[in-house]
Amino acid sequence: MLVRIRALCPRCRGFHASARRTHLVGAPHPVSNLRPIIYNDTAPMRSTAATHPYSLTEFEGDTQEYQWKIQRQQLDAYNHAFWADSNSRFQAAKAAVLESLPESCTAEDREFVLSEFYRRWVVQEMPRQKEYDAEWRKQNWKSISLGARLAFDKFAARISHPFSSSKIKNE
């Protein structure tokens, strides 16, 4: 239904004053098989009052927003590193098993050996997977709660100052 409405009214976005922001999804990584997210966040505006290159007031905006952006990128990097390592170790172990088979091995024997390898791999990796899963969930919930707090703060600022500009400055 949404697609049909968009097809009927392709210029509907022109009625909105806000800029359109979308995140892009890249091609799958050859080792981790994850599709990287290319975040399309608005670039922070430089303050003209900054006199030092490392000034805390160099950029406008809330530090919570910067923290949230960094946190979600760290979570993506953690996820990518885990799966790249896991998949490369899996492929190396699988190649070692296949190389150990004699050339006279039948397809049925090969399938049996591979199914045993898969079973042992899952059992072997279960503690590592559980540790990763617990850490990923913890970091993900931190990111979600920080993003929700940030969204609530922005909403509260818009409600408390309905006629001010879209950027509320901390003066």
UniProtKB/TrEMBL annotation:
Pfam families: COA8. Its main location: mitochondrion. It comes from the Eukaryota. It is found in: Mitochondrion inner membrane. InterPro entries: COA8. It is a peripheral membrane protein. GO terms for cellular component: mitochondrial inner membrane. Keywords: Membrane, Mitochondrion, Mitochondrion inner membrane, Transit peptide. One of its GO terms (biological process) is intrinsic apoptotic signaling pathway. Belongs to the COA8 family. This is Apoptogenic protein 1, mitochondrial. The lineage of its organism: Eukaryota, Fungi, Dikarya, Basidiomycota, Agaricomycotina.
